[in-house]
Design goal:
The chain has no helices and 11 strands. By secondary structure, the protein is mostly beta strands. The strands form 3 sheets. The protein has a 4-stranded antiparallel sheet with strand order 1-2-3-4, with no helix packed on it. A 4-stranded antiparallel sheet has the order 5-6-7-8, with no helix packed on it.
Length: 136
């Protein structure tokens, strides 16, 4: 009559090769969307991988400043928007379906290491010790 405990495997069911992935505690270069699309930042390159279709695509190649954080939008209206924090303090919003830069959010002067969505509000945290709220 009681519920059976869920069995959780001790082995990964998928192993992805990501050469160039930075081993840095202060970066958050991996995020999974609600649509099972994995975003991975490797230096100046941001790639996406659909876990459903197994299709890998290059979203962008950033010039001169590496990606330091990634976060998918959590709103139903914009599920394909990815926030990309950069080493120079910029935050870029990308439409992943169209591979199009929507806009760049200024405000930080140093590495953006934290991104968090709450509806249409994006919170960004930086090494400049600032936390900014962007109503996007």
């Amino acid at each position: 009559p009681g519920r059976q405990p869920r069995k959780i495997s001790r082995e990964p069911y998928k192993v992805l090769d990501a050469p160039g992935l930075e081993d840095d505690f202060y970066r958050s270069c991996l995020d999974n969307s609600s649509d099972d699309v994995l975003a991975v930042a490797r230096g100046e390159v941001v790639d996406t991988l659909s876990l459903r279709t197994k299709r890998c695509e290059r979203l962008c190649t950033l010039r001169s400043h590496t990606c330091t954080s990634l976060s998918w939008s959590n709103t139903c209206q914009h599920p394909h928007v990815l926030a990309v924090g950069r080493h120079n303090g910029e935050v870029q919003l990308w439409d992943v379906q169209r591979t199009h830069l929507i806009r760049t959010l200024p405000g930080h002067s140093r590495r953006v290491g934290a991104l968090s969505w709450n509806g249409h509000v994006l919170a960004t945290g930086s090494r400049d010790r600032g936390i900014l709220l962007h109503d996007v």
